[in-house]
Amino acid sequence: MRLTAQQTQAIKRHLRAGLRVLKRPEPLPLAEWADRNFYLSAESSYTQGPWKSDPYQVAILNAMGNDDIVEVNWRKSARVGYTKCITAAIAYFAEHKQRNQMLWQPTDSAAADFMQQHVQPTIRDVPVLRALSPWIGKKHSDNKLDYKRFSNSRQLFVRGGKSAGNYREKSVDVVYYDELSKFDPDIEGEGPPTLLGDKRLEGSSFPKSIRGSTPTLKGECQLSKAADEAEEQFQRWLPCPHCGEYQIIEWGGPDCDYGIKWDSRETVLQAYYVCKHHGCVIEQRELAGMDERGEYRSQTGMVTRDGLEFFRDGEKVPPPATVSFHVWAAYSTRTTWGQIARDFLRAKDDPVKLKGWVNTTLGEPWEEAGERVEAHHLYMRREHYPAQIPQRAVVVVGGVDVQDDRIECSAWAFGGEHGTESWLVEHQVFWGDPSRWDLWRRLTEWRQSVFNHESGARLRISATAIDTGGHYTDMVYKYCKQHAAERVFAIKGSSTPGAPLVGRPSKNNKGAVNLFSIGTDTAKEMILGRLQVSEPGAGYVHFPVEIDREYCEQMTAEKRVPVRRNGRTVYTFKQMRPRNEALDCYVYALAALEILNPDFKALAAKLAPREPEPDESESLYYPQPQESPKPRKRRRRNAARKIGGLR
């Protein structure tokens, strides 16, 4: 059968029409889609026109659109384009990935304002989204102030976050919490907003939870808590245009050698940045070029430039499931370093204004007054030890913390006057299942490690204390019982105010082991006082250069605060961040030292500098606890003695 030209053309038209429904757009990352399609509307932007992602925004946008990443937390300051980024994400998921979405604001009125000022202008001004909105400008059941339904059957819900009812019934693929830190922490007694909202994702093939906010109070800020719990916590690193060293852009302040500086202490005519590594002077105009070559690095060493590919030690690795990003105003092209400095000078003498400046400019939570050592102070005083264990240190003890997926342990050396000066020797993390003995064998190998003393002697860990308060208490009991001869002690924390550092041991436990009660607040008060000692000597705590910022953050994770109990004020320690294992390990090491009770003078004499012994085995020893004095015999009381001394 021969077809006419007219019939052939008709068949082609029908084939094209039939295949058109199968056509899918080229898959694009969110940042690229936004650069092609998104638009800055007049109602909600200082400048109107096509969107162009700033370099620091690219990885965050792409992480939002990356199907392998389930949760994105953005701890941010003002002026970094956050609202525009989530509005672009809404448009992207509606048109490009065709997902159902739900966004919560802290209040109903904030939800209505967001829809009117951001969503509706975006639908009008972004052509690919407008094409899906035949109802635009009309009263229609698909076009409401809290709901939009597009012609591709995808839906967007926008609700206030105060009512528990606003978190029910909907099934979506993407949820947003705008200004999460301003939400009620407990929604009508049913739980935190992220717990209720993320329930709406159950059943989605590609669930996504996006949270963002300027922080509020430290310890109470919901966004900061979520960000600190993320698997990978990213900060923006930029190269110095002069020396090439990468660094986080930090405020620094007037009393720091690096950071934002200005020409006068009281006025700001010109501001610049001082490189942390070599003191290079960086001008504001150089920021854009630095940001083009910037990258995000996490606390574990993971690196990404674009939020699509992730690397560790130069090797490509799978994207993490949960991430957080911190970006503050100094990275932004929407303000200047000079303006940041001027804002600081206006706020510095007023605690209320300064709190607002810290939250909205630095993008950091505000810490209320309380006793605490700052992490960066510890980080800045790290030192190079002359040997693994310096001369004044004479005994090494270990503190061990057991977590659900790892064992963390610290080796601490003590010496000096009365043994109050301490040196962190090393901190180790052994990942694995604490219910399996192979992980505990790694702990044993670590305990039996040999450390080089500056005198030439070799020391091992003389005593170890292991906390029994976790989920693997039985395993700790068994391990301590097996290794009791090696001075491995089981301990349990006590929060009783004024409890002694180490109480009497008791075998009244399931493992029938000697279980020592530890006064954790007593130990932490001791540590707080020692961390405030500024010069080496009695009480000073030394840290080696090998430790990172995360370790210092963990060491300072708790703050001493006053609380009212039974009508009186007592002091206790409040945990300000999720991770505090470094601090706990130091507490346990102090307990091990107290139980060991070494003779510091005798050990110091034995380790005094001298010529190395011919037989090196003689220098490998365990310091012995000093012998307790023998108890005096008590005189037997006269059986006839009565109350008041009367016979």
Automatic annotation (TrEMBL):
Domain Phage terminase large subunit GpA ATPase per the UniProt entry, residue ranges: 47-295
Pfam family, one: GpA_nuclease
Domain Terminase large subunit GpA endonuclease, residue spans: 322-599
Single GO molecular function: ATP hydrolysis activity
Compositional bias per record (Basic residues), positions renumbered to this chain: 631-640
Region Disordered, annotated ranges: 608-647
UniProt superkingdom: Bacteria
Gene3D superfamilies from the UniProt entry: P-loop containing nucleotide triphosphate hydrolases
HAMAP family hit by this protein: TERL_LAMBDA
PANTHER family, A to Z: PROPHAGE TAIL FIBER ASSEMBLY PROTEIN HOMOLOG TFAE-RELATED, PROPHAGE TAIL FIBER ASSEMBLY PROTEIN HOMOLOG TFAE-RELATED-RELATED
Protein name: Phage terminase large subunit family protein
Organism in which the protein naturally occurs: Microbulbifer thermotolerans
